[in-house]
Amino acid sequence: LPNVFLAAMPVLKTLEAGGFEAYFVGGSVRDVLLGRHIHDVDIATSAYPEEVKELFEKSIDTGIKHGTVTVLYQGESYEITTFRTESGYQDFRRPDHVTFVQNLDEDLKRRDFTINALAMNTDGEIIDLFVGLADLKHKLIKAVGDPEQRFHEDALRMMRAVRFMSQLKFSLEEKTEQAIADHHQLLKKISVERIRDEFVKMGLGADARAAFQIFLDTQLSEEVPDFAGKKEQLAVFPKLQFSPTMETSLWSIIIILLGMQDNQIGKFMRDWKNSNAMTEEVERIVNFFDIMSSHTPTDYELFEVGKKTLLNTIDVAHILGQPVDSNALVDRYLALPIKNNSELAIDGRFLIKKGIKPGPQLGELLTKIKKAVINGDLDNTEEAIAEFLEKQ
Ligand code: ATP
Ligand code: MG
């Protein structure tokens, strides 16, 4: 057993000693069996949340209505969720209410895919009610039970299917894929934020290009913001040179493939409920990508874009298969006499002391000096700049 599970074992044992059943469940069991890195260990138990809290010194009510308590144990935190079923999915999204149940089987039945419905007990034995182990071996994403019914209960599962395909490099089982193709419209019921989170995980997964192809083929792409009717442009994504590994690259690439104008980027990013910071960086990348596509950037353009955005734009160009001499661009950037405004030897106050009146002309003069310094036509010293001013 990996250390993360060994460290968590006393938590299971404490629950058992309290007279309850307890298992590792969900993604962590799947990832251990795949030899993947585990980021969080989920535990399912027959104990009610209040009973869980009594057994541990430190706990947080993270989702007590849904039966989840976070327990802090030896510096780690564990989500402990009472066995439950979900009922009354009136609106194709989250269940109206959860019902706590006394056995693990019912709890595993509500889970989305067979590979996510595995449990492990304190002896390290796997409980596999839906041939999840065989599907792990065959690298298949397959719904637990009838896929049509499961997607009607919760349409987000359709996005989760393509997300796990990408992250795990798995294929989609035929009936599960057919059910998505038949019911992709159900995704309309799901909030953009939740769709976006799955979309980004898909887009940044190891097999993003294959998963994106299924995302297009099943028409899921018709149900997400600003993608409807854009299949032809988006079909380039599965044919990219590489899969993106940064979120800013993912969004920039999509925007470039969709052929968006500068002034459409903000709306697109807002439609996807992206943050302002993400939007601003994506705008800078797409703009600089345009510059790089039209000409070799000038020193001043390199200065203006800055190192981070330069590297991000190079990443985007690389993924899109655009030839760029990235070493030369980075070397030129590193050789710039100044990298930001504060490195200029003078500022506005210096110009005022030299008799320039405050106002727009002062700003223009400052920019002119900055450009001359960046282009290497003027030394970045007070003396050289003073001399330059006299010649104006
Ligand atoms: P990740 O590595 O992204 O955390 P995960 O499998 O742990 O993957 P989570 O979203 O953390 O995914 O969910 C934990 C578990 O809860 C899943 O493995 C699955 O068993 C169950 N689950 C999560 N979301 C759903 C859903 N929408 N429908 C059914 N079961 C779900
Ligand atoms: Mg998880």
TrEMBL record:
Catalytic activity: a tRNA with a 3' CCA end + 2 CTP + ATP = a tRNA with a 3' CCACCA end + 3 diphosphate; a tRNA precursor + 2 CTP + ATP = a tRNA with a 3' CCA end + 3 diphosphate
Co-factor requirement: Mg(2+)
Domain CCA-adding enzyme C-terminal residues, every copy: 244-389
InterPro entries: Bact_CCA-adding_enz_type3_sf (IPR050264), CCA-adding_enz_C (IPR032810), CCA-adding_enz_firmicutes (IPR023068), NT_sf (IPR043519), PolA_pol_head_dom (IPR002646), PolyA_RNA-bd (IPR032828)
Binding site for CTP: G27, R30, R111, D154, R157, R160, R163
Enzyme class (EC, first level): transferase
Boundaries of every Poly A polymerase head domain copy: 22-141
Residues annotated to bind Mg(2+): D40, D42
Full protein name: CCA-adding enzyme
